[in-house]
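Q: Sequence in, structure out?
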Amino acid sequence: MEYVLHLAILICIYTILAQSLSLVAGYSGQMSLAHAGFYGIGAYVTALLSVNYDSSLLINLPVAMLLSGIIALLISALAVRAIDDFFIFITLGIQIVIYSIMNNWQDVTNGPLGIPDIPPFTIFGFTFNSKLSFLLLAALFAAVVWFLISNITKSPFGRILRALSEDEIYTKSLGKNVVRAKVISFVISAMIASLAGVIYAHYVSYIDPSSFTIDESIFILCIVIIGGMHNLRGVFYAASLLVLLPEFFRFIGLPSTIAANMRQIFYGIALIIVIYNNTARRIDHVKVLEQGIRR
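A: Exactly. Output:
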């Protein structure tokens, strides 16, 4: 039962991460590979404040989100002006820089040794020291994030993001501030990713840079792509599938080395299928438009 609760908590954390990335990758059309970096910023900020200063969640969470937001704002002011593959390369560089700071700034982050003994959440005197209580808290955060992003995407600002993902030039021609919309979505996404980092750090009680690598960013992006670029509910299903997939391979008795390779093969096949379907839909959409123009 404890292990089932553990998996459910991980699903909630990855759902938060994937939903936040969906705002950038899905709705504004910016494929970011820096998400694990902002995830790590949230985890390290709350770990350092909790361990060194014994501060509470009510302080750690706003500080972590604010710091991630400031860093994302400074970066995105330049990065969002790049297009297509160049934006991906910039975010990849950001991810590498953030990881290198975590791994090498030993006086602050303790380097590859990580930060142990992170205390559990304590809110108004109640300590979330059981998996069931932590699952309820993580599920609450996931629900709040879903409600927030769902309302953002349905707002006039969200419609601008949707238009961006379809045709940026046309969106500009309507007089919309494309750069500002991209920056805002990137900053909101980074701040929510740091929220997931805060939850993760207090749950596992130990963090190190290996949890926030480029592989983790790719994994989060896989969840978004498989779940659907504009589908917050699908993102939850994809997070559940990809978190539970290794457990399925262990259940059927595959050795751990083979199970890890099978998981990577499954990711590749799933991504190919999803990209193929999306491409086919776009081609069909273009054909319909061409037929309409000819008529």
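The longest helix spans residues 256-294.
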